[in-house]
Queue: 2 jobs
Job 1
Amino acid sequence: MSPKQEVLNVGIDLGTSRSSISASNGQKHLVESFVGWPLDMVARKVLKKDVLIGKEALENRPMLDLHRPLERGLIKEGSDRDDEAVRELLKHLLVLAGAGPEERGDLKIRAVVGVPAEALRANKKVLRNALKGLVDNTIIVSEPFAVAYGLEELLHAMVIDSGAGTTDFCVMNGRYPTDEDQRTLTQAGDSVDEQLATMVGEKYPDAKFTVHMVRDWKEQYSFVGSPKKAVKVTVPVEGKPTVLDITAEMRAACESLLAPISETMLDLISRVEPEYQERVRQNIILSGGTSLIANLGTTLQKELDQVGGGRVRVVKDPVYVGADGGLSLATDAPESDWEKLPA
Ligand SMILES: Nc1ncnc2c1ncn2[C@@H]1O[C@H](COP(=O)(O)OP(=O)(O)OP(=O)(O)O)[C@@H](O)[C@H]1O
Ligand SMILES: [Mg+2]
């Protein structure tokens, strides 16, 4: 008999804007979910690389064919580049954790991968293909479930994970969640950015700005409810740096999330067994980058007053909570829960 093969467990959170890995060797890494290929021979000569990932890809975007592997909660598939983008991103995360194809040797790699709930339904095949040869075994789960597992909130809890591409919901009933326990909305960070860009463009037609600038403004000044102070940003208008007041636009763009999130939250609560609804209402967890919008948690909590009250808390460190949850799952999962991938 051969000696027992060494195993590395990893949790991967595959996100629209950021992806992270947390491995049983203690490695933790975060990358922006962007993959880019040099546009031509000149770009390749300047960049000295065949493919760029993460921040490096974003910073060099004028020289690249830039791809985001996920959009609106789905893994993009169809074109070769789309299929390759998700594989390159996964490979990069594994390389960062010291488990890339070249350095892994005969290490057995088991990966729990968290994706938006919709991708779990629609994109399992493309994800399995992307993982082939990179890892030996996988369990693909929804992002909010990975978060719930990481926080050990497995019973009578609801996780609302609001990221860039989607807001994902998962009710925990003390077992693996089913489709009925989960929902996905495309109202999330990216849709706020789009609305904010449109509204600012309408109010100040001569102002020049990019979606990247709009995202920065949002990350600095986002809020719902009454403003604490005016939101002012500086942008070029006819070439001249000009201060613009975007308070009302910021509020309206961020508040566009309130109705869809609170409706879905209340609907999911109404489907919980009546005797447990109160406990779920008292245990709602908001995670993901978009949970950082000022007052979002307290405003959603107020919505619970119409059904008897409850509590919404915002996760303190949303960056690695999904990847860490995936790693805990990988550590706990029995052999029979793993899917074996061909080499
Ligand atoms: N301080 C902040 N205020 C408001 N939004 C923020 C803040 N910081 C980050 N965000 C937004 O959070 C989003 C990224 O969150 P997160 O990393 O959870 O998403 P993701 O996991 O990549 O996406 P998804 O889960 O939808 O696939 C982006 O839209 C980003 O602009
Ligand atoms: Mg996410």
Job 2
Amino acid sequence: MASSKKKQWLGWILSKDKLDEKQKINFSFSLYGGSSQDYKQLDALAKEIKKELKTRGLKARYVSSQKSALSSVIVKKNNLLGQELLIIKEKDGYLLGLTEAVQDFAAYSLRDYKRPDRDQVSGMLPPKLAQIMINLASQGKKDKTILDPFCGSGTILQEALLLGFDKIYGTDISAKAVADSQANILWLAKQQNISAKVVIKKADVSDLASIFDEQSIDLIVSEPFMGDARFIKHQDKIAPLEKIKSELQNLYLSAFEQFGKIIKNQGKVVFIFPLFAIKEKNINTLDILTISALGWRCLESDLLYSRPEQKVKRQITIWQKIA
Ligand SMILES: C[S@@+](CC[C@H](N)C(=O)[O-])C[C@H]1O[C@@H](n2cnc3c(N)ncnc32)[C@H](O)[C@@H]1O
């Protein structure tokens, strides 16, 4: 069995015939969803393949890392585009794939870490996630009015500008957040040589209907206030987190009441609900029934964005206003 797998994998590597500038074949694999035992077996197989390539007179380099899946940085820096086999374990078999492209990590990192104002206390959304959320809301259509009502340091506004939206609004209760967003947008516009067509105002989310006209917004994309991150990080008792949950649910409910007034019928909201993972228990701030009762249809609630050790996980939800 192992020898037939080896033959297949070897055949595949040779069929790619992709040598780097040192005339070497670089190859690797990433395993998703498998056990550490599965990984060890595949790693051993890859080492055998490297030997086999050498006995055939070919220079080969097998790239592995500490983790069972390689990062985009490793793939790019080791010339593995087209040579990284993706092995995805399913319930009843495996899916195989090939990495053709990776994210532009250098550009994301520049937009995240080199912008003038970062607010580590309130928390910042990774630009990549901001982009995913905008795409989930817009389905690629740029001629929409888009609002982030908890704009913080402006990550969603930045990504909307880069994606080509030209009716972009941001609001936040904090004057500092408004100033930070403005500075970051101006910086990005200068970097990219584009005009900074973004309107940013100071406003409490429960007051949105006094700022925006009725049914004037197409899309709302937001990561809201998710509680005091420094407090939550060191908290392992359920009761204080239940209290935070209830306060946040009131805030989100009031936000969705306002969204219902300013968004167009059929307009979409992509919104993050925090989920606190403590001692094997999940404290979930998403309450689909209560928000749906305000006139919203929940289109998606199963997207979780988190690292395994993270205490505050992000549950990404998609909503549509019922006409
Ligand atoms: C998690 S941050 C948003 C981070 C933002 N997505 C970013 O990447 O920069 C939450 C923001 O919500 C704002 N906020 C808290 N309560 C608010 C309220 N009632 N109305 C509007 N904004 C509020 C805070 O000032 C903070 O800037």
